[in-house]
Design a protein that fits this description.
There is one protein chain. By secondary structure, this protein is an alpha/beta fold. It folds into two domains: 134 residues, ATPase, nucleotide binding domain (Nucleotidyltransferase, domain 5); 169 residues, Nucleotidyltransferase, domain 5 (2-Layer Sandwich), CATH 3.30.420. The protein contains nine helices and twelve strands. The strands form three sheets. The chain has a five-stranded mixed sheet with strand order 3-2-1-4-7. The chain has a five-stranded mixed sheet with strand order 10-9-8-11-12, with helices on both faces. A two-stranded antiparallel sheet has the order 5-6. Strand 1 and strand 2 form a beta hairpin. Helix 3 crosses helix 9, helix 6 packs across helix 7 and helix 7 crosses helix 8.
Length: 314
């Protein structure tokens, strides 16, 4: 059994043919223009999919297309109701639209949820029934698996864990509220904070960097740079406070971290674990919460979206 899994983003559309073991067979990608009508961009995607599957030996084994889409969805009806990242996408019947053009069954899911599905079925979350996954990238994404099943809210509108407020009246968030976890724990947030502090720390090596990203900040932190140390210290506190809330609400068996900042791996995880210790509710007798890195990287969304098609055969 093979399905096509597609990750639709604001700048690119990336897809792959994926078998029911979660293995990627072949890939395709195309540029995405978020400002144009969805019928045009997704029309191009359908042409690409048709071209992609045309001469594949396994064409007859392809059972459908799974789409990971950013935004507010009606998952059952296959409609994107709105998307903060794709302003022209209003009530776009994407499943019908794609099905008519590629002649395959189509399922849709919120993009953050597709990532946790991929990890839960084929990645770091494989042996767990209750998982919270946090993606630390441009924004902060979230995904929830409860009792082995995806929990993605009414209509599949996603688990917007990044928009939990950790500081009342805090930093402005892209969602319109202030103080969201995303405004503190995203890669964008730590970079912005670095830039805001450059003048206050004229001796910091960050002043000499052409491009400031999370990797550079963590590198300089390890070298003892004062500004970098302050940034990482505060970053760990904010992220850990968010995770502590999710820990107290869901008490998952495991937290999975993915996205750019998570590339810091065990170095970052150790700091978070140290901060979270003795702070989660009932910590004296409660089990410790393991934190792991997501293992599928940027493929988790594609694999998770494809896995929606395998569900009916389970
Ligand atoms: Zn927000």
């Amino acid at each position: 059994m093979i399905a096509i899994g597609v990750d639709i983003g604001g700048t690119s559309i990336k897809g792959a043919s994926i078998n029911d073991k979660g293995e990627i067979l072949d890939r395709f990608s195309l540029k995405m223009d978020k400002e144009i009508e969805p019928e045009i961009s997704i029309g191009k995607m359908c042409d690409e999919i048709n071209k992609f599957i045309k001469n594949k030996k396994y064409k007859s084994k392809i059972i459908g297309v799974g789409l990971g889409v950013p935004g507010i969805l009606d998952k059952e009806a296959g409609i994107v109701k709105s998307s903060p990242n794709l302003p022209k996408w209003i009530n776009f019947k994407i499943a019908d639209f794609v099905q008519k053009r590629v002649n395959l069954r189509v399922k849709i899911v919120n993009d953050a949820s597709s990532a946790v599905l991929g990890e839960a079925r084929f990645g770091s979350g494989k042996n767990y029934q209750n998982i919270i996954m946090i993606t630390l990238g441009t924004g902060v994404g979230g995904g929830i698996i409860i009792n082995g099943k995806l929990y993605d809210g009414l209509g599949g509108t996603g688990a917007q864990l990044g928009h939990e407020v950790i500081r009342y009246n805090g930093r402005q968030c892209s969602c319109g509220r202030k103080g969201c976890l995303e405004a503190y724990a995203s890669a964008t947030a730590i970079i912005k904070e670095a830039k805001n502090n450059l003048k206050k720390y004229p001796d910091s090596k960050l002043n000499k960097e052409d491009v400031i990203d999370a990797k550079v900040i963590f590198e300089l932190e390890r070298q003892g740079d004062k500004l970098a140390k302050k940034l990482v210290k505060e970053y760990v506190i904010y992220l850990s406070e968010g995770l502590l809330d999710f820990c107290n609400i869901f008490r998952p068996e495991i937290f999975l971290l993915s996205g750019g900042v998570a590339n810091e791996g065990d170095y970052l995880i150790k700091k978070i674990v140290k901060y979270m210790k003795k702070k989660h509710y009932g910590y004296i007798n409660a089990p410790e919460i393991p934190i792991k890195l997501a293992s599928l990287g940027y493929d988790s969304g594609k694999i998770g979206a494809a896995s929606l098609l395998f569900e009916q055969y389970e």
